[in-house]
Design a protein that fits this description.
Aspartate Aminotransferase, domain 1, Aspartate Aminotransferase, domain 2, globular, 13% strand, 13 helices, 7-stranded mixed sheet
């Protein structure tokens, strides 16, 4: 036991001098609302994805809702989405009045199961929301073959590649989140990106209504501030170093867990992993749902804040049954702290705790 160790949080943003300087420059300028810095951030993110443009908004959840609205999705339309994900995609679907068609995941990758998605497609299916979970791309080529417009949720997996495609390259719309815990953080905010300029223009009309010749249905104030954009832009400028640090930490974790019980994150051939979360699976806990929380408690006594990577699967909110992979993930998946802001001393503490539990 590491009784005197400080608690290592599950997430911590990488805030450095460049971020503080960027925020201070905006405060000094007195231009706090959406302005030129937001425009720079939009261009920077679009260039990162190789897309012609982006529209910054207030959050990733809002970005999902805007994506659905610009595609004209509403009442009587169906949207496919995986069950094992945070509530944001479900809430976005419900807010536009569409019907969520929740499908199971591939337990090995935690991403949406293309076979389950294929079986769920109907004549009413107008889009599929594809979150890339924990740093691993979903099976983009397989999902693209379904012939349904894809909304890629890249909140957790910027920079990853799967089946020869970079995340953000297969969808008709790509969305990002810049919440404080995300790989690229601005404190808060989101973005809608696309190669279709007409969709981007619709997103801009939804984002704001001031000084427009006509009012667009559902238009409201969804603008990102220059303050948030300045932090996001500073983070984007060194995002490559974040990915390198995450990869190096993952190598250390893998070495510490070599030969141990947990199933480590899968990286299929032709894929890269950016390790937004280092999520292991413990199949022995599948029939003992309370033991995962007991394990989390044991790590806390060693100064390590681990968590369930998804609090509750969507099908459980909807009181549905028949999602065995998502339910097993709920019972057996554990997220171990991994982020660039970890100090070398904290990494040593984490490795010691992992070896103590699974030596």
């Amino acid at each position: 036991m590491i009784g005197t160790a400080r608690m290592i949080p599950h997430s911590r943003p990488s805030i450095e001098a460049a971020d503080i300087r960027a925020a201070t420059d905006v405060l000094t300028s007195r231009q706090l609302a959406q302005g030129g810095i937001v425009d720079q951030f939009e261009r920077g993110m679009a260039a990162y994805f190789g897309l012609p443009g982006g529209v910054a908004v207030t959050s990733g959840t809002v970005a999902l809702e805007v994506a659905l609205r610009v595609l004209g999705i509403g009442t009587q339309d169906e949207v496919l989405l995986p069950s094992y994900v945070c509530a944001a995609p479900l809430l976005a679907v419900q807010r536009v009045g569409a019907m969520p068609r929740v499908v199971d995941i591939d337990l090995d990758t935690f991403n949406i199961d293309p076979s389950a998605a294929r079986q769920a497609v109907t004549s009413k299916t107008k889009a599929i929301i594809v979150p890339h979970l924990f740093g691993l791309s979903a099976a983009l080529s397989d999902l693209h073959a379904l012939g349904v417009p894809i909304i890629e949720d890249c909140a957790q997996t910027l920079g990853a590649v799967g089946q020869g495609r970079s995340v953000g390259s297969a969808g008709v719309i790509t969305v990002c989140s810049f919440y404080a815990t995300k790989p690229l953080c601005a404190g808060e905010g989101g973005m809608v990106l696309s190669r279709d300029e007409s969709l981007l223009e619709r997103a801009r009309r939804l984002r704001e209504y001031d000084e427009t010749p006509s009012l667009y249905p559902s238009a409201t104030n969804l603008k990102m501030t220059d303050l948030h954009a300045a932090i996001g832009l500073a983070q984007l400028n060194r995002f490559g170093s974040f990915l390198e640090r995450r990869s190096a930490l993952a190598d250390e974790y893998r070495s510490a867990l070599s030969g141990a019980t947990p199933i480590q994150p899968l990286v299929p051939s032709g894929y890269t992993h950016t390790y937004y979360r280092f999520v292991v699976r413990l199949p022995d806990l599948a029939d003992h749902p309370d033991e995962l929380q007991d394990l989390i408690g044991r790590f806390e006594t060693q100064g390590l804040h681990c968590r369930k990577p998804v609090f509750r699967s969507l099908h459980r909110y909807l009181e549905m049954e028949g999602f065995p992979a998502a339910e097993e993930a709920e019972r057996t998946a554990l997220s171990i702290p991994l982020y660039p802001a970890l100090t070398d001393e904290e990494v040593a503490q984490i490795l010691l705790a992992l070896r103590a539990e699974w030596s």
